[in-house]
Amino acid sequence: MQIFAPFGLKPVTNQVGSTSNIVSNQFGALQSGGANALYTFQPITIDANGFVQPAFTTGTPNVAAPIEGVFMGAEYCSADNGAWKQRPSVPAGTLLYNNAVAGVNNGDVQNSYGNPKIITDSTTIFAIQANGYVTKSAVGQYANCVINNGAAIGGVTKYSVVDGNPSSGLSTVSLDSKSIAAVKGSLTLKIVGLARNEAPGQQNQWSTTSTTGDPYPILLVQLVASPLNSVV
Fold this sequence. Notes:
Elements: E1 10-13, E2 23-24, E3 38-39, E4 43-46, E5 52-54, E6 69-77, E7 84-87, E8 89-90, E9 115-119, E10 125-129, E11 142-146, E12 152-153, E13 156-157, E14 164-165, E15 170-171, E16 174-181, E17 189-194, E18 218-223
Antiparallel strand pairs: 1-10, 2-9, 3-8, 4-5, 4-6, 6-7, 6-9, 10-18, 11-16, 11-17, 12-13, 14-15, 17-18
């Protein structure tokens, strides 16, 4: 049985049996001083200016969003000392060195906004923890992500971190078990199975009914269609 400790959308495998070659830095850019933090395994979208943003923010939990990929960390040039950093997360308000900064010439940085690492491969299968009971009948059905904004789940506040853990750099997005439906509509994830290797020391199981059994199973999902990936 699982404890509730959501970790976002963790890539597990794809059609060739590996996730080592599916991370790209060709989609979107980091925004210097951006208002939203970015965390590893966080669903993201690309805004009208080409910047990577969370697919949804604290103001819109449980609402479908155009998930265009999953954030996998970033490499960027920090404005404080001009040093390149590789980080699992990018805190809100992070200022990036760019060519407009005095004393920096065009040869000093590869990309003035840094290089976000994104998975957009539509065949990738992700592990994600549900925030409530899910039975085996959910396989082939659809669901939304949800931000764990401290709201009570089952009458108890289960998680207080908004959309990511600053200490680990990981997302805390989970699958909204109440959103599961047979019709895709505007739902963002397709449920394809139960994770077997993502719960060390714990027995990961389907819930036996909608109210009994494992209350927070870890599921396998794929992203539903977006401008950057194919229909699932």
